[in-house]
Design goal:
Strand order of the largest sheet: 6-4-1-3-7
Number of strands: 8
Distance between the termini: 100 Å
Order of helices and strands: HHEEEHEEEEE
Strand content: 25-35%
Number of domains: 2
Helix content: 25-40%
Largest sheet: 5 strands, mixed
CATH architecture of the largest domain: Beta Complex
Shape: elongated
CATH topology of the largest domain: RNA Polymerase Alpha Subunit, Chain A, domain 2
CATH class of the largest domain: Mainly Beta
Number of helices: 3
Length: 139
Amino acid sequence: MRDWVTNDFGWKLFSLFLAVAIWLTVHKIYEEPKAASKPAVGDTVTFGNLPVRVVSGASDVRDFRVAPLTVKVTVSGLAEDMAKLQADQVHAVVNLTDIGSERDLHVPVDVSAPPGVTLVSVDPPKVGVIVPPPSDKKP
């Protein structure tokens, strides 16, 4: 029995070390997503009349219209970040670069905010886009 424990003791100790290292690595990988998914603790701020900006291709000169013109955006974050946050730091945008010739669309509103600020909600989440017909006029 003593030979069973002491025979190749160095390899057995090395194997035990590797097993513990692998277990700790896998355990840490499974724990990190849980910590990252926690919402930011702190205050919530709502901007009621945030204008919706339209982004389209440089060659697309059509006069797009969105309805409604403004959205209500709620964001959250740490209290010190929320105290400094201004309305002009939060942007509501609709991306119309790949719409083609479709008409009367409902497009999701994308909201960008500074680092440390988490988007809570957008009301309405989609806005209507009125696409004017292409002009056939030639100068």
